[in-house]
Design goal:
2 copies of one chain form a homodimer.
Chain A lengths: L10 H21 L5 H8 L3 H7 L3 H8 L1 H14 L4 H18 L3 H4 L13 H18 L9 H14 L4 H13 L5
Helix pairs in contact in A: 1-2, 1-4, 5-6, 5-8, 6-8, 6-9, 6-10, 9-10
The first copy, chain A, binds a DNA duplex (30 and 30 nucleotides) through helix 1, helix 2 and helix 3.
DNA sequence: CTACGATATGGGGCGTCCCTCCACTTTGCC
DNA sequence: GGCAAAGTGGAGGGACGCCCCATATCGTAG
C-alpha cells in the first residue's frame, strides 16, 4: 500500500525525472510558479514531450518540487504539538504562511487543484492534515472559537501567502491581523 | 483639472474604445481576467493592434471595465458613512469582498499594479480611499484597534476575493473570519 | 554476449497567445 | 473637395503548451 508500484521505472526514466524536478526547483525559485515548462525541459536537457509525460500538469510538477519543503513543515507541526495548543497553532500558521510567501511557487503548490493523487500525499493534503491536528488540540482546550472550518483557515493562509509572495514581513503581518481580528479590545 | 485632455479623440477612436470596453466586460465576466486579448479584439471587430494602442496593458483594460462597478462601491461607502462606524466599516468590507468574489475579474482589477494613471482614479485608489475614510471614522470611536495599516486590510480583502472567486459565500465567511479573528471569547 | 521486445525519448508540428511594424484608410478642418 | 493628421488592421516574429510517431535505449532471457 505504501508501494503499490507494479514495476520499478527504467533507469533513464528515473534519471530524467530527478533532473526535471531539480531543474524545476531552481527555475521556480528564480521565476515563480509561472515559469515556462519548455525552459525547464530545455535546461534539463530533455524534450518537452518527456516533461509532459512525467508530469501531466504544471501542478503535478510543483507538487513534487515542494514535497520536501512540505514534509519539513509537517514535521515542524508535530514538533510544535508538545507546546501550549494555542501557541502551537498560531506559530505553525505563521511559519507556514511566511514560508509560503518566502518560497516562490510554494503558495501555488498548496492549491487544492484537481488532484488525482491520493489526497494525503499532496502538498495541500499534508498541510490540511497538520492544520486539522493542531486545530483540534487547540479546540479541546478552548483556545480558539469553535465553528471555524479548517479548510477556511487553510484557504486564508493560501490567499495571504499568494498575495504577499516575495514580502515575508507583510505575510506575517497579514496573518496576524487575520488571526487577531480587527476589533478593539 | 477634471478634463486635462488636450484634444478630444476622433469619433472612430471613441467608437472602438467603447466597443472594446463593452466586449471586454462581457468576456471577462464569462472567462475571468485571463481571457485572451485577441479574442476581445476579434469579438469587437477591431485589429489586435488597436486594442493594444487603446490599452497598453491588460490591467489598463480591466481598470476601465470595472470603473462603474467601483464607482458604485465607492458611492455605497459614502452611504454607509451615516451609520454606526463599526457596522459601516464591516458592512463595507464584506460587500466589497463579496462583490469582488462574485464579479469575475474584479479582484484582479483591484490589484495595485504599476499604475501610471493618477492614483485616485484607479480602481485600487478609489477603494483605498473609501476604506481609509471608513477606517478613520471607526478609529475615532475606538471601534477598531489602532495600528492596522489600511493597505494591509485592502490586501487582505483582495487576497480573499481572489482566492474565492466564484464562491461568494466562502468569500463572506473568510472575511468575517479574518475580521473576527480566531480567538475564543 | 547478443538479440529482442518493451519502455522511453525528442524533435517537430499545430494552434494559440501577446505584441509590433507599416502600408493603408478614415476623419475633420480649411 | 482636398489634405495632413490621426487612427486602423493584418501579417508576422517570438514564445508557449501540448501531442504524434519515428527512433533510441534499457533490461533481460537465452
Amino acid at each position: 500500500m505504501t508501494e503499490p508500484k507494479v514495476r520499478p521505472q527504467r533507469s533513464d526514466w528515473q534519471r530524467n525525472h530527478k533532473r526535471l524536478v531539480t531543474v524545476a526547483a531552481a527555475l521556480v525559485a528564480r521565476d515563480g510558479a509561472q515559469v515556462s515548462l519548455e525552459e525547464i525541459a530545455r535546461e534539463a536537457g530533455v524534450g518537452s514531450a518527456t516533461l509532459h509525460r512525467h508530469f501531466p500538469s504544471r501542478h503535478a510538477l510543483l507538487e513534487e518540487v515542494f514535497q520536501d519543503s512540505v514534509a519539513h513543515l509537517r514535521w515542524r507541526a508535530g514538533e510544535l504539538a508538545d507546546k501550549d495548543p494555542r501557541t502551537a497553532l498560531l506559530t505553525w500558521l505563521e511559519e507556514l504562511t511566511v514560508a509560503a510567501a518566502s518560497t516562490r511557487g510554494l503558495a501555488a503548490a498548496l492549491d487544492a487543484a484537481d488532484n488525482t493523487a491520493p489526497y494525503s500525499h499532496t502538498c495541500h493534503g499534508i498541510v490540511r492534515e497538520a492544520t486539522e491536528d493542531l486545530m483540534s488540540r487547540a479546540l479541546r482546550v478552548a483556545a480558539i472559537r469553535p465553528g471555524v472550518p479548517p479548510d477556511d483557515l487553510i484557504t486564508l493562509v493560501q490567499a495571504i501567502s499568494q498575495a504577499t509572495e516575495g514580502d515575508p514581513p507583510a505575510a506575517g503581518r497579514l496573518l496576524r491581523l487575520a488571526l487577531e481580528g480587527i476589533r478593539h479590545r
